[in-house]
Amino acid sequence: MTKHESSNNHLSACLICNKWKSDQVLDTDLDKTLKFKTNYWIKVLERVINVTLTLAKNNVSFRGDNESLYDGDHNRGNFLNIIELLSIYDPVLKELLSKDKKCVKYLSPTIQNEIINLLANEVKTELISQINESPFFSVIMDTTQDISKIDQVSFVVRYADFIKDNDNVIRDVVIREVFLGFEKCMGQSAEDMVKQLLLFFEKNNLSFERLRTQGYDGAANMTGVYNGLQAKILEKQPNALYVYCAAHNLNLVINDSVKISRELQNFYDFVESLYAFFAHSIKRWAVLTEMFDLKKHIKTIVPNAMVVSL
């Protein structure tokens, strides 16, 4: 009997019985502890998300060379530096950083990337919702190589945003253009491009029936009258007219115009050489700046993806 009365099961049963007699919830203490911890971590995540939003909106990098909070004065990156700065004034973050290094803090690069992806998905979902409210839209598609020499496809959508008043009457129409992301290029052929574009529509729940315009550059796989991307899309959606990229077209016209004039070629060569003469010497650049009181920086002529070197 004595052994039973001192057992854990008996003591737990007595505790439950006493709480029941006093009309208390059996797990009141545990419930209070859980609520306190839940509220604390909600506050932590609110601060972490706000720091992430601030860095993302201002196009500021997150990562550093060494992202440990406990390894001296290393470059921890902007994310952790801001968290540390805020902890000086914010008791929630101060308590978080004072925890043992083995404790969870939701500050790791993995958590940073997860939050960035979640926020990006929310923004993308909102943009797609606005596009789907429009009766028609156009798609602009192009590819470019990234630093690792992999072709990335960019997707841009232009749509009509109908501004309504309180009586649901349309008062204005605003044309908006939004970037919806990069994807690894599936291939350079028109068939691959068609497949990737249709998959893009499917993944983002965009109505192919409301596509009214398609815009690309002048590459043969895009503009081909019979086998180009635009022709194959027209077969599936006759209302999706192809519009040649005006900026690309203008660039080619200017480039060809310059090519036929030796005087213009010599002029641009001279301007580039003049820039190089001053830019490659700190002393010469200082003299130039002092003599002409330059208010703006002089820039070199840098060829982009559309410009053919002169």
TrEMBL record:
It holds the Pfam family DUF4371. Residues 24-228 form the DUF4371 domain. SUPFAM superfamilies: Ribonuclease H-like. It comes from the Eukaryota. This is Zinc finger MYM-type protein 1-like. InterPro entries: DUF4371, RNaseH-like_sf. Coiled coil: none annotated.
